[in-house]
Amino acid sequence: MLDQIESTIRNVAGTAAGAVVSIGRNGRGSGFVLAPGRVVTSAHNLRDRTASVTFADGRTAQGEIHGADVDGDLVVLDVDTGAAAPLELAEATPGLGGTVIAIARGGHRTRATIGFVSAVDQPFRGPRGRIVEGSVEHTAPLARGSSGGPLLDTAGCVVGINTHRVGDGFYLARAVDDALRTRVGELLEGRSTTRRTIGVAIAPARVAAQLRRAVGLPERDGLLVRGVEDGSPAARAGVQQGDLLVRAGDRPLTTVDDLQSALDALAPSGAAEAPTLELGIVRGADELAVTVSFAEPA
What we know:
Helices cover 17% and strands 40% of the residues. It has 298 residues and is an alpha+beta fold. It has 3 domains: 2-78, Beta Barrel (Thrombin, subunit H); 99-177, Thrombin, subunit H (Beta Barrel), CATH 2.40.10.10; 200-293, Pdz3 Domain (Roll), CATH 2.30.42. The longest helix has 15 residues, at 2-16.
């Protein structure tokens, strides 16, 4: 059995290592070649629109953002990938107990480790605090500088993109599911993704409760608006500073994640008809509803 494990790691690493790169001059992250001239990595590995990319043969080139989904912690770089053979995305998401191999590059050194999928459908927060759904937890050890590198199955196909350690020897990777394949395809085409917002600043729940008590209003679950961006969808709908957002569509609002989930569930940008979202609002002691439209202003 040990000989079989060793043979599997050697075969997968020997085939895939040439496509794995180091991101940043100090190797702050990893990435991998997914198409000629295109490298995929985690968005949190970048400090600006360019990054130094070091390949398996020691060559270093400057990569520039080709497509980005910062909230989803994904970015595709435009860079000369030379003779590096691209990796392929797997057709299926790894299941619980599945064998996985993680490969990362720290400068000129390749690291390959083996582990197992310990949990599925795990969420994590992206670089700007937004929840990212559908990751897998695994036990393949990862050193610093491994985020953005590929998680592979025993056939050498990418089943995940490593993100970060979650403690006690477990690690998270964005699973290669239908949603990720679609998103990566858009980024490869140069179509960056900006998640929809309504244009409000939200006060922490404890602050909202304190302010309502201070003015003699009953406590109520919801999101207290502490600012509204001029010209934003919320401003056009009439949302005001001091409003308490208590509902988005049929979804009660108790956390910012609830609001973000409601926004993510709307029709994507570019749909034939601009989506709308009804917000339930408590203004003082009065309850009302407003409709937020995401149509471009005339």
